[in-house]
Amino acid sequence: MHTKFLLGSLLGLLLITGCSSTASHRDRQYANNWDGTQTQRLEQGVVAVGDDRQMVYVAFGPPIAKPTLTRNNLERWQYLGKVQEMPVLLKAPSSSAVCFATTNDVLFANPFKPEQLQLLYVEFDENNKVANLALFDAPEGMYVRQPKPEEFCLPPSPRVSSPR
After folding, report:
1. Is position 160 within any domain?
2. From CA 156, how far away is CA 164, in angstroms rounded?
3. CB 128 within 8 A of CB 86
4. Could you list the residue range(s) of the whole structural domain that residue 72 is in?
5. Contact status, residue 99 vs residue 89, Cβ threshold 8 Å
6. pLDDT over threshold 80, residue 121
7. How many angstroms separate the CA atoms of 120 and 129, rounded?
8. What's the pLDDT at 9?
9. Residue 7 falls within a domain, yes or no?
10. Would you state the pLDDT for residue 65?
11. Number of domains into which the chain is organized
């Protein structure tokens, strides 16, 4: 009995310590690119107009679908999740910012109820900077799709032509 309790406690501890922020993990990939306040903002899931592709990737992870180009030649990434209350930050981003919790960072179970799910479009200009942030209610029937392991990297831009 004592062994089962010890084993269960150890497993629980491993789950807690092993489930640290994946945004923090992604941030370590690009740690030298930003100052401490930008890093803190990204780890809290806050993205603003003017941020670059790497910043969005660190904050939200890979998009839920392959990036596409809009009619206005903006690169669009889609995320499924929920808007969160804007955290108190040392340095506030521009007024055009969103704090968003994506379904990408959910390891075991989806904490969002279907009626809470929202669809966030992040659109990048030709300089790979966020030009627009658009939020919609998720279409009925949209489901949470866990990214495949090979998708956990900065996605290639659809603007880059493939080699022939």
Report:
1. no
2. 17
3. no
4. 21-151
5. no
6. yes
7. 16
8. 47
9. no
10. 84
11. 1
